[in-house]
Every structure is written in C-alpha cells, then in structure tokens.
Protein 1
Amino acid sequence: MSSVLTSAGGRQGPVGHAPAGLHAVERGWQETNCYVDLWLSLLGARGLDARAALGFTVTQDFEGDQFTFFKFPLHDLDRFYGLNVQELAVFDELDAHIEQQVSRGNVVLVEMDSFYLPDTRSTAYRRDHVKTTIGIDHIDRAASRIGYFHNAGYFTLDGDDYAGVFRKTESLRADLDVLFPYVEFVKAARPALTGQTLAGASLLRLREHLAARPRANPITAFRAAFPAHIEALIARGDKYFHLYAFNTLRQLGANFELLGQYTAWLREFGVDTHPSIEASCKTIASEAKVLQFRIARAIARRRHDLCNDSFDLLEQAYEASVPALAAEFDVSHG
C-alpha cells in the first residue's frame, strides 16, 4: 500500500479507492445508511455500476415508527454482479479470520463499534458506541493495521484503534459477555453481467420488486403517525430528533433519490419511463430534506407544526413515482 490518497477524516487509502460511481455524483443525500453506502463504495471500487441494482428501492414502506432501512438484496448482488455474500463463522481471533479471507481476494463485512473508527471523528469516534458495518479489504496483523470501506470513503486504522475494533484491549478481552460480531464475506463467484444483458436482468428483477411494493401510500401512513411523533420530538429534544430524522426522513429521501437515479439508468438502455417519474422521485428526495428542517425548527420553537403542505407534496409525488412506474410496466401487486 505504498501509493496513497487522503480520504475524508484525515485518513489514507490506496489509489483506486477514490469515491466512484454514485459516490462521485453530487446528490442531495450524500449519505444514505451504512449498508447501502458501503455497497455503493464496494461496487464503485470494482468498476461496477450500482444503479443496475437499485430497483429494490420501490419496496420501501413506512413501518409504523420508521421507514424501511433499505438495503441491497443479496440475491440481486449475486444475480447482477456475481458477488456471493456468505456468513463468516468466527471461532478464532477475528483478525485471523479476516486475514485468511482477504488473502483469498474476498472483502470482509464486519459490524464494528464506531467508537474506534477514526473516520467517524465528527460523530462517534472516542465518544459514543455506535454499531456500523465496514468492509475490510486489507489487513496487516503484524503492523496492527487495516484498510476498510465505510460510508462513502476508504480509510485505514491502526494502533489503539486496531486493538479496540478487534477487542484486543485488556478490558475487552476480560469481558466474557462480549459476543463475537456478525461477519460476512464477499466472494466474486462469477463475472458481472454487463450491457444489455445486465439491463435485461435488472428490468426483470424490477418487475418482481414492483409486485412487492407497498399496497398503500407509505407517506399517508407516515402522515397519520406524525402528530404523535412531533409531540414526542418536542418533549425529547435534539438528541432524539437526530435519531428520528436518520430513520425516517433520511431513509425516505435517500431511497427515492436513488430510485430516481435508477429510472435515469433505465433510459440509458432504451427502457422508456416517463420523465415525470424521475422528477417525482427528486421531489420526494428534496422535500424530505425540507421536512427535516421544518421539524427541527418546530422543535426549537416548541410548536406542533403538522407540516401539511410538505405532506401534501410528498403524498402526490409518491403516487406519481412508484405506482406510476408499476402502471408503466403493468405490474399488479403480488
């Protein structure tokens, strides 16, 4: 790893892991959630177009207290890119398992504690214990160093941070109640699909996802729950708001921004979708951000703003996006 570039957070990563694909595109929601961002990075680093696999975004629903924490289905990653994801059994030192997998050309996905991840310096590093997933593609056990994908970047860590993430500190070793983390590895099982073959497979899978779309407008369900939400938000303050916004507005806005990217990708391959569908996805992405700011202001002023005009716009945009896309492809609910 002699060639390096400076990545976000002041860390360095190898040349070839600069932001790529959708991470290199200016977006309103530059970060989505740790799992989707990780895969956008992994696919971009392999020169693969992540947009082909974004059809699953049509299945997002409101789950009563949050929007679906949207994730690339493993089936789709296998089908489009030949990337097989398997659980890694951890029965020995975790870094020894990772060393073995990395030596085989695999990337290891590990649930880590952000407390020890220096790229989270502005949020959790050495302050809060927050679970997140990283993708490790380089490890030097002798030097206590790893290179890893996280969110929209590529980073390295070493020294005390290495001891922390792998639970090698004296206090963590002594805690018998500390469980092994959940670990997966990514194995390139087959060549990725390309060109029209990829587009055809993606379109077929989109029809399957559309059949599994919500049966009712999820924005309407969110709106019905919102009066109780704003009451709780005013009572509980800023710290709770940040958690709430991440799991509701960020998931909604980022999901539909990526769905808009997907419809644009389809048109590049001659699959006609009405431009109003992409425009409606962009409306949801932008208005979710507006709604987030309005809620923050309502909390600061302790005012129960139901944000009706924002919800009107979001509901209408949803009807003009997912249901309209299903109608274009004549896909009924499964």
Protein 2
Amino acid sequence: MTTTPPLRIGTRGSPLALAQAEETRRRLLAAHDALSGPDAIEVVIIKTTGDMVLDRPLAEIGGKGLFTKEIDEAMLDGRIDLAVHSMKDVPTWLPDNIILPCMLPREDPRDAFISNKAERISELAPGSLIGTASLRRQAQILSRRPDLRVTVFRGNVQTRLRKLEAGEVDATLLAMAGLNRLGKSDVVSSAIETDELLPAVGQGAIGITCRGDDDRARALLAPLNHEETRVRVTAERALLEVLDGSCRTPIAALAEFGGDGQLTLRGLIARPDGSDLMETDRRGAAADADALGRDAGEELKKRAGPDFFNDLE
C-alpha cells in the first residue's frame, strides 16, 4: 500500500512567518479533507540570509530576495512543496520552475505608527528619531517632515518593539497586517492612512509558491486563491517590475477596488532623503491590472529619467 507523502510548507522562522504558515495550514485543512491526518502537513523552517544579517540595511547585502533565496533553493531541491511569503518580500522575477499561483485574502495594507511620545508622525517634536529599515517609509516621512531623523532599524516585530521600549528611537513603523496577524494591534499609536504614507508593493498580502511542474501542489492551492487580492497585487508588482525596483529605490504602490468594481492604482517613487517624490495613478478594469501597472511604471520611469535611479546605486 502506498501512502501519500506529507505536504511540506517552507517558511522563515520569525513569529510572523510562522503565523502566516499556520494560516495557510488552516486554510488547506478547511479546503481538503485528505489533509486532515495528523502528519499530512509539515511546516519546515528555513533560515534565510535576510534573517541572519540584521546589522545592515537590506540594500547593502543584496535586497529583498535575501528573504526568499534559501526557500526557493529548498523548493527546487524537493525539500519542500509549498512556500509561504509576505508578498512585499517577493522579488518581481521568480526563479525558473517556481510559480505564484495563490494569494490569500489581503490584510490591512497600511503602515502603523508606534511611539511612546506621540500619536502620529505630525505630532513628533523636531529632531525626533524614527527607526525603520524601509527606504520607502524613510523617503515619505522626510518628504513631509524633513526636520525628523531616521535610523536603520531591522529585526522582527518583537525585536523592533523591544528597541522602541528601550528608548533607542522615538518612534517606529511596522505593517498593520503583521501586527494584526500576531495579535499585537494594541501597540499601535495610529494607523497611517495611505494618502499620507503609501504602502509597499504587496503589503498585507500572503503569497504561496510551488514548483510549476508540481500538479498536486497546484491543485491543493487552487481553492485557496483570493482573486481580488491577486488582481490588486498584480497591478502593484507590474509597476515595480517596470521600475526594476530594489531595496535601494523607494517605491510604493497600492491598488484598490472601488464600489463600481473599477481598479484604482496609485504609485510613487522618491529619493531616500525625501527631496524628490513623484506620484501617479491609473484606473481601469480588473482584467487590465498588469497593463495599468506597467503604464504607471513607465510614466514614473520617464518622468524620473535615468539619472534618478543611477543616483541611488
């Protein structure tokens, strides 16, 4: 008698990554009775370079792909069948034979402002120090408040909250989605509306990858895919791909559906010091999500000119 091998889910080992893997496991169990056995699903923790090097900005050690590289390798080697990722960490180009067939329903895409000294960014005293590892957040903050200071602040959610409590900075920013998934929304001083701070591409969305030739994994993931989230993130990632965005380039984008079913995409690029910030938007049908994103990206790229991006290298 042959037995079905366990479905192995690869993930990073942070509390948030494990919470996202657990959400994926719950949804798989709800969708497939065949996975209800005690050993039917196995969560495999994989340490990534991005998790191990915490003393430098991501841009200095290779960019956002450092959170997915080792997981991709484990998948291609056959050590895992699925991988659960925060979509904002997934590069726009996936390795050969790795596909992204599934996104779970998107959480709150906004950024959270956390401080013991103010309720929102506008209330911080001049010269206050904000800790963030995101050039996107840094650029937009300094564009509105050039009198503030920003320092590199890396580590998982718990680490950053401990540093804030220890007084290393006056405030920090985290994704509302991650705090909600960890049950830590009580630490939030205020959620920052997207017209004040545009989120990262894919922020709040969970993506699940598998091998392109793995029919079993593709079939198991099919009922989990949330089409509205997939369309929104497709538009945002198309903009990012045109701009060839990396962690050295402050880029933000958010696609949302209106009450009329139309898709609205907002995007921006900026210099890290906030001295130059360009915005654009597009509106159209869900079926045109990729084209809307590419068109918006091309506009920003043309307006910025080649020197804009070269200056960030």
Protein 3
Amino acid sequence: MYKEFFGLRANPFNVNPDPRYLFLTRHTEEALACLTYGIQSRKGFVLLTGEVGTGKTTLINKLLEWLRLQQVATAFVFNSRLNVPQFLDYMMADFGIPCDSRSKSQILLRLYNWLLDRYRAGETAVLIIDEAQNLSDELLEEIRLMTNLETSTEKLLQIVLVGQPELELKLKQAHLRQLRQRLTLRAKTHPLTMDETKSYVAQRLRIAGSSGQQIFDPEALNAIHLYSGGIPRVVNLICEHCLVSAFVDQQRVVTQSVVEAVARDFDLGDSTASAALSVPPRPSGSDKFDLVDALKTLANLADRLRESEQDLPKERKV
C-alpha cells in the first residue's frame, strides 16, 4: 500500500529469503566463496553457521540459484525434524531418484549408483540441510556415513550443513567427534556493522525501484542499526513497519521518532539503544569512551572546586 507513495515497484523489506536481495558484506562474500569452493573441490562436508536472522537461508538460496544455473543436482532439506526413513525419502525425492524399495540398504545402494553415474559424467550432487541444529544424533550419524559414498580419490556427495551457533556446540560433543573431524570447511554469517546496515537499507530500496530520493534520514538509520543489533531480519522488520507508519501519516521521510515508535511496538526499545540514541555524537576518531580522559576531567574539576573554595571570604566558610 505504501509502494506508490515512496516510488517503489516492490516491497524492499520482505522477510522472505529472496536471493536478489543478498547483501554482500566481506563476511558474506567469504562464506559464499567457501561454500562454492567446497562444492567445486568435492571436499565432502561444509558447515555454515550464524546467529538467527543473519541471512543464512538467503545465502543458501543464492547458492542454490548458482548451482541450478550450473545444472548441478541438488536436494534441499529445510525441515530438520525428520527421522532417518523420512529424511532418506525426502532426499531421494528431491534429487529425483526413483526407488520403489523401502529398505534402507536398497535406498543407499540406489543413491550410490546414481552418484557414481554422475561422477563418471563429470558431474556432482549437493545435499543442503538447513536448521541442522535440530537434527537428531541418529540422523547426524546417518549423514556422516553418507560421506563414505566415495571413490578412492573423491567424495561423490557434497553435503552442506546449515545451522545456528547451537550446531557448533552440538558438534563438539564427544560422541559426534567423527562427524566433526570430517568437516573440511567452515563458514559463518555475522550481524551488520553500522555502515553495512545503512548500505543494506539503501541497496534493498534501490532493488525495489527507489530513484535515490531520501526515505530514511541519517538519524533514523542510526536508530535502525542500534535497535536491530545489525540483524538483517530485524532491520527488515523495523524498516517495513516504519514505511507503513510514515505512509499512514503521509510523511515522506522516516525519522528517528518513527523508528523509536516501531521499536517500542515490537519491544526492541532496550535501555542500551535508547541511551545510545540520546548521547550527542562524539568527534570523529573517538568511537569509544576514553576512561583516562574522563578521569583527567574529573580531577581538573575537583582542583577548580578546591581553588574556588580557597578564594571564598573567610566569613562565608563554615
């Protein structure tokens, strides 16, 4: 409803993991390069982790888009609450491998022969598992055993495990050490910095059709970063509702007060962010509070107070 008001063709802050909106920070570029290298080099096992809302699924969708352009066979498991038979059925169906048998041994044999045929044709296959922190230990062990599908020199199946930081903690357990040792490459997503948040918002507006006119003023962008903590999903949430609010009020530019109101509505207005927004900007080159300077200032103030007291007329001293 606000697109025409702000001169946009599409909703710039949709929370769906649309690969068109992938914002390439240094960390994102490194993660994407790590994933593509691991697959192309047939490393077998690659791990991608990151905090909730930092763009893991968007990154994976971009990877899937690239793999399909390369005509690489892929299976994408996004529901990790599966038992072993359900997982095998889903994987085989997504790869498009017909198998009438319900026997696990027959399913794995069919998978092995299919992978071998692709290898002989100079092709590969990629299995991507999202929300992998929820996988049962039994299923993780089954996935580890799939890395035994190999030739004498290379892995036939490339597996990408994607999950929250809890996945890394899970893999540190002693009984999963065999799986941990097979992880050849690790990649991570990270929250955005202040500058990255501003560029992220600008890029999404541009892709959505913005002509470059100012929609969020600088103070609003600062507030968006502080209230979101640089988490892209939360940035999208705040920006979306800011545009709706500004449209309702027929306000062409989103201001800090609009952001603060939205943050309060979603219980994002913590004391740290509020305090940070109320502090006037410090001179450039002084990003952190200097404790030594503060102590010197207090000492000078105390000296001046003592001097003032000495200058008072005697009769006024108590």
